[in-house]
Amino acid sequence: MIIAGFGFSKQATPASFQSALLRAGGLEISKIATLEDKARHMALRLFSDVKAIPITPVALADAGTMTCITMSERSLKEYGLGSVAEACALATAGAGAQLIGPRAVSADGYATCALARVTP
């Protein structure tokens, strides 16, 4: 099972999420994960509805225990996380999960996506 973690700005659109997902590898995903305060963003909800994939809200405290590959200055300043996308993907995928790669940025720069593989 593959989890897609997303970080994004308020300007993100459904196309931003699709672009970030494709740039992250475009794999088939089972869940979408993002921070609790971002989970109700309308564009993310539209993207989730079109894909028929549920959104899993992640508590900042849970995301903060994850080890990220990427160290984004903006993410560090705003959330204390190296990458919101990577941390949320890992937190949702559970113990032993691994990132498939570092987060990818959408073509418009408004969203990031990281994919994590759930280990059996």
Summarize the structure in words.
With 120 residues, this protein is α/β, with parallel strands linked by helices. 35% of the residues lie in helices and 22% in strands. The chain contains 5 helices and 6 strands. Strands 1, 2, 3, 4, 5 and 6 form a 6-stranded mixed β-sheet that branches. Helix 1 crosses helix 2.
SSE blueprint:
Blueprint: E1 2-8, H1 14-24, E2 31-35, H2 42-51, E3 55-58, H3 60-63, H4 73-79, H5 84-93, E4 98-99, E5 104-105, E6 111-117
Parallel strand pairs: 1-2, 2-3
Antiparallel strand pairs: 1-6, 4-6, 5-6
Helix-residue proportion: 25-40%
Radius of gyration, Cα only, in angstroms?
A: 12 Å
**β-sheet strand percentage:** 15-25%
List unreliable stretches of 5+ residues: none
> Structural class of the secondary structure composition?
alpha/beta
Give me the strand/helix succession.
EHEHEHHHEEE
The main pleated sheet reads as: 6 strands, mixed
Distance between the termini: 9 Å
